[in-house]
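Need residues for this backbone.
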């Protein structure tokens, strides 16, 4: 490999991911508010509304240099900001290592960015915005036409089965308990994941998200002391499981074949 591939492109992919992560923080903060725009006004402190100057808006570094406080009002800055920036930077770097500069890199960069936004919005507001999941389904299906890793047939089946699978689970739970156990946002999210990754991902994504969610639910029950009334969002676990499948697809598929989860 030449110097550009070994050093320059990986550094660029990390920095680019961090910059996009900075914008994703704006999306996470403003998208759930129907009155807010993700474009205007420019970046500002959510507490004192002072404009954030460019040298205070450098991903990750500004948070550290400012000592986690707004320069104007000294209010503590949430850890969410550097976490999102660092997570998107690492995802971008991992995608480059896997796909180099290619249509797959561009497509899955968009996909992982959407999942990252969904994770943090669902954790904070317990909603999955349709403005992400519905276009995400269509984009995933359209991307399969140029994606060498997922055929359009597998993408279409993943979209239909993904949505239908969780809908059946949610309906079955409701019929048994007469309680809402899963929101429509989760159903649409799994349909979106199926469209991007193909139907083969669904057994792993459903099993993995249920396992991780159950463990997190037990922890939340102990912490909140609400017993069976404890509510945790399911979207983050679906999203994290989708990311795991994206980066460890070969190993996961081999394991599923050995367990006879796939033909």
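Answer:
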């Amino acid at each position: 490999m030449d110097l550009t591939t070994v050093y320059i492109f990986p550094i660029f992919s990390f920095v680019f991911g961090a910059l996009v992560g900075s914008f994703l923080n704006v999306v996470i903060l403003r998208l759930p508010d129907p009155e807010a725009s993700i474009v205007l006004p420019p970046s500002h402190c959510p507490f004192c509304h002072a404009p954030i100057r460019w040298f205070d808006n450098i991903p990750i570094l500004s948070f550290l240099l400012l000592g986690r406080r707004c320069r104007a009002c000294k209010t503590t800055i949430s850890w969410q900001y550097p976490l999102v920036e660092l997570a998107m930077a690492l995802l971008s770097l991992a995608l480059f290592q896997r796909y180099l500069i290619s249509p797959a890199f561009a497509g899955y960069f968009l996909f992982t960015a959407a999942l990252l936004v969904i994770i943090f919005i669902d954790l904070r507001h317990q909603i999955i915005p349709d403005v992400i999941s519905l276009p995400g389904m269509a984009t995933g299906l359209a991307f399969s036409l140029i994606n060498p890793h997922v055929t359009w047939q597998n993408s279409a089946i993943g979209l239909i089965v993904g949505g239908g699978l969780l809908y059946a689970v949610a309906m079955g739970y409701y019929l048994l308990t007469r309680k809402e156990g899963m929101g429509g946002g989760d159903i649409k999210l799994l349909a979106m994941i199926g469209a991007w990754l193909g139907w083969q991902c669904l057994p792993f994504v459903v099993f993995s998200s249920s396992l991780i969610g159950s463990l997190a639910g037990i922890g939340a029950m102990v912490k909140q002391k609400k017993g069976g009334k404890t509510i945790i969002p399911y979207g983050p676990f679906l999203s994290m499981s989708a990311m795991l499948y994206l980066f460890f697809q070969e190993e996961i598929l081999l394991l599923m074949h050995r367990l006879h989860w796939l033909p």
